[in-house]
């Protein structure tokens, strides 16, 4: 079973609650099975939260708060990922975020991913010009709507590492898939 740190899920859930309100959050919880609801309500106490459950949370948020609209989902989830990047880079990853260039951070991206998600693999291929590359993460296929969230997170992180501009696209999302076991992120920066 692939899991994520409960603290990471807690922070994304808190963003959903602040952004869409407690009434939407209550509807999200109602969509979950009783055992999933119990895990989600106590996520702060869960060292390992199943990504399968978080995928159901993300899907419910998109359905309830955004009417299933992919364009709105991409916009909002990118914003949420970006805001969570600031939280994490000021907190748990603050040491990692100091004194690294975007390219150095890219070379370590897989270690960040595996520190949050257990049971995943990663590979990075840098561009020859040192201003981007491809990051492939395998194992998160049950976490629906993760692609735009992670794109926003990575774009913000790249900017915090000193890039003037940053662009992150995920290939399977761009092909119209809401989830995939192999997420393929194209990163570029100046």
Kindly describe this structure:
- By secondary structure, the chain is an alpha+beta fold.
- The protein is built from nine helices and seven strands, in the order βαααβααααβββαβαβ.
- The chain has a four-stranded antiparallel beta sheet with strand order 4-5-7-6. Strands 2-1-3 form a three-stranded antiparallel beta sheet.
- A hairpin with a 5-residue loop joins strand 4 and strand 5 (132-138).
- Helix 1 (6-20) packs across helix 2 and helix 1 (6-20) packs across helix 5 (70-90).
* Strand percentage: 15-25%
Report the C-alpha radius of gyration, rounded.
Answer: 16 Å
H-E order: EHHHEHHHHEEEHEHE
Q: Low-confidence stretches at least 5 residues in length (pLDDT < 50)?
A: none
- What portion of residues is helical? 40-55%
Outline: globular
Number of helices: 9
Largest sheet: 4 strands, antiparallel
Overall mean confidence score, pLDDT? 92
The number of E-state strands comes to 7
Strand order, sheet with most strands: 4-5-7-6
SS content category: alpha+beta
Distance linking N and C termini? 38 Å
Characteristics:
7 strands; 3-stranded antiparallel beta sheet; single chain; alpha+beta; globular; 190 residues; 4-stranded antiparallel beta sheet
What does the secondary structure layout of this molecule look like, with pairings?
Layout: E1 3-5, H1 6-20, H2 22-31, H3 34-41, E2 48-50, H4 51-66, H5 70-90, H6 102-107, H7 109-116, E3 117-118, E4 121-126, E5 132-138, H8 146-160, E6 166-170, H9 171-174, E7 182-189
Antiparallel strand pairs: 1-2, 1-3, 4-5, 5-7, 6-7
Helix pairs in contact: 1-2, 1-4, 1-5, 2-4, 5-8
């Amino acid at each position: 079973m692939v899991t994520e740190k409960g603290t990471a899920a807690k922070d994304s859930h808190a963003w959903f609650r602040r952004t869409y309100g407690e009434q939407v959050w209550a509807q999200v919880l109602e969509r979950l099975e009783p055992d999933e609801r119990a895990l989600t309500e106590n996520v702060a106490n869960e060292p390992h939260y199943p990504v399968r459950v978080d995928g159901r949370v993300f899907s419910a948020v998109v359905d309830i708060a955004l009417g299933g609209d992919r364009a709105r989902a991409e916009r909002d989830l990118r914003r949420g990922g970006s805001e969570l990047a600031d939280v994490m880079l000021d907190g748990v990853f603050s040491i990692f975020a100091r004194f690294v260039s975007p390219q150095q951070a890219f070379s370590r991206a897989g270690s960040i991913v595996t520190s949050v998600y257990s049971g995943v693999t990663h590979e990075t291929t840098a561009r020859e010009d040192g201003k981007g590359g491809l990051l492939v993460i395998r194992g998160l296929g049950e976490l629906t709507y993760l692609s735009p969230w992670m794109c926003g997170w990575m774009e913000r992180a790249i900017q915090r590492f000193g890039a003037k501009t940053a662009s992150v696209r995920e290939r399977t999302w761009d092909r119209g898939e809401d989830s995939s076991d192999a997420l393929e992120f194209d990163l570029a920066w100046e």
